Amino acid sequence: MSFLAQQHPLHLSQTKVIAILISMMILAMSVTNVFLLSFAQAANLHSHSDSQCNHVHPKPNDVIHGVHLEPEHVMKRRSLDQRLRVKIYYDTSVYKLEEAMFELINNTVLPEAVSYWERALMVRKTESVIRLSRKCRNNQVFLVPNDPHPYCMNACEAATMCGEVQVPEHHLESCRVCDAQGKQCRSLGEGAGVGIKDADFVFYVSAMDTERCQKGMTVAYAAHCQQEVSLDRPIAGHANLCPRSISTKLPELDVLISTVKHEILHALGFSVSLFAFYRDSKGLPLTPRDEHGKPALNENLQARQWSERVIKRIVRPDWLVREGRVRKEVHMMVTPRVVEEVRKHFNCSTLEGAELEDQGGEGTALTHWEKRAFENEAMTGTHTQNPVYSRITLALMEDTGWYKANMEMAQPLNWGRNLGCNFAQRSCMEWMETKADKEQHLHPYCNRVKRDPLETECSEDRNSVALCNLVQHTYPLPDLYQNFEFIPHISQTEIPYYGGSVALADFCPYIQEFTWRSDNIAIRGSNCLYEENNPRPERNFALELYGPKSKCFEHAGSMWEERTCRQVRQWQHWGSGCYEYACQNGRLNIIVDNRTFPCYYPGQELRVRLLSQGWLHVGSLSCPSCTELCQETFLAANSSCKLPMPDPRVGQIYPNDPLDCGSLRPVYSVALSVIFFLALQLLI
Ligand SMILES: *[C@@H]1O[C@H](CO)[C@@H](O)[C@H](O)[C@H]1NC(C)=O
Ligand SMILES: *[C@@H]1O[C@H](CO)[C@@H](O)[C@H](O)[C@H]1NC(C)=O
Ligand SMILES: *[C@@H]1O[C@H](CO)[C@@H](O)[C@H](O)[C@H]1NC(C)=O
Ligand SMILES: *[C@@H]1O[C@H](CO)[C@@H](O)[C@H](O)[C@H]1NC(C)=O
Ligand SMILES: [Zn+2]
Predict the structure, then answer these.
(1) Using CB atoms within 10 A of its CB, is residue 441 exposed (0-12), middle (13-18) or buried (19+)?
(2) pLDDT tens digits, residue range 376-418?
(3) Do residues 562 and 626 make contact, with C-beta atoms less than 8 angstroms apart?
(4) Element of type H or E holding 21
(5) In the chain, where are the structural domains located?
(6) Would you tell me the crossing angle of helices 671-680 and 14-28 to the nearest 10 degrees?
(7) End-to-end CA distance of the chain
(8) Is the CB of 347 under 6 A from ligand 2?
């Protein structure tokens, strides 16, 4: 699964920009000028068509289905009360990794990802040891009456693979064969291996730089490889971590862990290859079985075909897009716990189920939640920001019939919460038009085109500086995804080219985190909580501070400036930034460059004039309400936010550094428009 955005290269190199600035300085000579700076960094929104998760599901012949653990009547009687125990086995490729990489994977990534699912899921306890079945030559298997084990026709394969990993001999059952007529059935060789004790799932992990790793910047992929026979639960799987895509930097580490969790879940149950095996709460199949005890094969999908009790097709006859109302067909997961949870989540009691992804082709479509409906849910097909594993995903795990979920492990999903049927069952165009008609904010969508000067906003939870991901595409979008009749500042002929940057979200535009890039190399992210995202001091024009205690605050008024007695420079992007804050004396206080600015009412403009790094930084911040950020803190201390009151005289109580230049005054000049024009090319 690839999660790193790879987008348009920059048009100007950093050296060119500096050269331009120097030439302008010479030109300007003693006249002080305003410089607009953007330092050859472009804001790149995450997610791209090739950063989709491509879960290449195991084909029916790749999976060994029939591992005998215990008789069905014994298994079914057991309750779902055993915390899932996952045993990990490394392929030799993992031991060949560089030490730092090995430690990262062995001590952080895998333990965190695996233990999350171990805490989140419970299974019927596997009392016996797990011995995996051997692969039969030509996949030809006999079932022998009164014998739970499968027999191969003529011979077993020399090696049994689980994905890219060869299953060790001591994990395998003995090789059982019959002749071509199904006679003379017997065990060959040295008998069964010792097997795997105290485990409910065996996970083979490799770290090979495979062809799939090189395609589409994949980070990791996983799938199951064997299912036990009585309830069809997957009991073995493999994951490959792509060594060249693994980074040890902190913001990327969290994404990596979430990606590995996501991939593991494909192996545990969320996969096109497993939908047809789901069972109800009594352990009965939701999809009818054929004479071999399996659901019918869907040749097209190369998967077993599920019934309508698992996934239903629903037609939306009046889906609103630019050309009018059209017919749209969606696939919905309609198992009972999922239905219950999505209805609660959206507050829509007529919602048929949870919509599945319909774009992205094999590997993305059907095997993920629909991005438009579930944006940052981690089981959507592409990573954009702040991935969470919601109650809906855990409910799906319960609906497999193989697990009970510990709902306390679910993370809150804000996207779409309580927005009702009009959000969950209608197009984003209809939602936006309805909001616009009522002169309300388009939340959670947006319609501000990303352009110069780049004007950032804050994400809803204030955890990051964010942008509306509405961009101009190089091609007109398919009719079904043209979500606008009108966009401010955009001409009618251009409208078909405009849409959100995330294709899987049906090109619906929304507020999103992003990465600053220079020459296509990620410089820093926009999430406030990571220290790594701090701009370099000489570029920190708005005196931002990123770290675990920071939140995003909107800038008020106009662009920020930096002044000396001889120069004024303005920056090419503004709009919001990350700052620490303090809840004190009944008020929210925003901290800028270690100085405190109290907020007296929401919307109050805090003027900032502070000396730092030899420049006077001039700008302003907008106060959110005290309750939004301080309610919890104050309640915990048995106090509360004071009532809003008018601004006490600004300038007297607020920090305000002087810039004493004697008779020399900074002067704005015509150079402004020239530089503005040059800088415009820097951003996408
Ligand atoms: C790998 O992790 C396991 C369990 O977390 C630990 O016991 C083992 O020492 C680690 N191996 C190395 C080489 O660090
Ligand atoms: C859910 O929707 C109903 C109307 O459909 C509304 O009355 C109720 O307030 C909503 N609940 C929440 C929590 O938004
Ligand atoms: C912030 O200011 C306080 C006093 O106001 C000072 O003690 C502290 O060292 C300062 N911290 C930084 C990082 O400048
Ligand atoms: C909180 O404050 C109220 C009144 O100010 C007081 O009656 C109450 O005992 C306090 N509770 C705690 C837990 O301090
Ligand atoms: Zn996936």
Answers:
(1) exposed
(2) 999 999 988 889 999 999 999 999 999 999 999 999 999 999 9
(3) no
(4) helix 14-28
(5) 14-46+517-680, 60-289, 316-384+416-512
(6) 170
(7) 26
(8) yes
Q: Which two tokens stand for residue 554?
A: 């909107």
The tokens for 352 are 């048929």
Residue 656: its pLDDT value, please?
A: 82
Ligand with minimal distance to 266 CA: 5
Bridge partners of residue 454, in order along the sequence:
573
State CA 461 to chain mean position distance: 16
In this chain, the answer to whether the domains covering 60-289 and 316-384+416-512 adopt an identical fold is: no
- Top-level class of domain 60-289: alpha beta
> What is the C-alpha separation between 320 and 619, in angstroms, rounded?
42
Mean pLDDT along residues 671-681:
35
Side chain identity at 473, as an amino acid letter? H
Determine if residue 266 is labeled as part of a ligand binding site.
yes
**pLDDT value, residue 23:** 34
- pLDDT for 32-68, tens place per residue? 344 444 445 666 765 444 477 888 889 888 888 878 8
Q: Which fold has domain 316-384+416-512?
A: Leishmanolysin; domain 3 (2.10.55)
Ligand with smallest separation from the Cα of 424: 2
Task: Give me ligand 4 centre to Cα 632, in Å.
Answer: 16
Q: What is the pLDDT of residue 254?
A: 84
Structure tokens at 618: 């001039």
Q: Enter the tokens of residue 682.
A: 């820097």
Q: Is 111 in the pocket of ligand 1 (CB under 6 A)?
A: yes
Whole-number Å distance, alpha carbon 347 to ligand 2 midpoint, is 6
Q: What share of the chain is helix, strand, coil (3-state, %, to 5)?
A: 25, 25, 50
Report how far ligand 3's centroid is from the alpha carbon of 528 (Å): 21
Q: Which residues are in the CB-under-5-Å shell of ion ligand 5?
A: 53, 55
